[in-house]
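re the bet — no i am not wrong, look at it urself. input seq straight from the record:
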Amino acid sequence: MRVEQVDWVEVPAGVLRRGTPAEEVAAVARRYADTGVPTAWYMKESPQTQIHIPAFRIARTPVTVRQWSHFAAVVGRPVPRAPAEHPVIGVTWDAATAYCEWLGVQLGGLEVRLPTEDEWERAARGDDGREFPWGDEYRSGLANLVDLGLGTTTPVGSFPRGAGPFGVLDMAGNADEWTSTVYAPYPGAPAEVPRTEDWAFDRHVTRGGSFRHDRDLARCARRHGAYEQDLEAIGVGFRLATSAVRQ
């Protein structure tokens, strides 16, 4: 079986301004008050911290139904009925991790994995701490979010003008993406930030939001999760990461 190569984007080592300053959270909540998201949900982004992220590679787009189907045929997993070039959704964290391990073997022993939450934010945000992958202002039509009214996924890479600073696509909308990071408050978080999210279906952090989410989920700093068991209905998918190429 021939497996296609991943379109990797090289993300250089750099400093990520991760999260949102605690003193700005209330203003953020007011800015997106029309979405109905409570202030407490944004508080999980605080405090803002500068952290060094080593170089890594991340897939330009999420894993598609076509790519998933090769794996599904081997291990006996179902293939969604969505078009081949749409992101695969409805995938559990364990299944996404299994796909990474399987693909790594197909690619000659490459260590394929899910990105960490910090790597994901670094790829979306770059060096300048922007609010959205494309800049500081929300612009409808740059991502498949609920404001487009499509109600379903679109082919990956359909919104090139919404690319992040390194050229990574679909980091806002279309499919909410698994990371390898288990939810926990950031070090130094305000006391009211929950220590765990026991109400979540899965404890791992997701990022980016899906076609069913509002623009607040398109923010690079926004921490999310799989809060419903029907992962297809809420649009949970994933993209790949791996180590940087050694020079």
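see?? DSSP finds five helices and nine strands in the chain. told u. also The radius of gyration is 17 Å. so pay up
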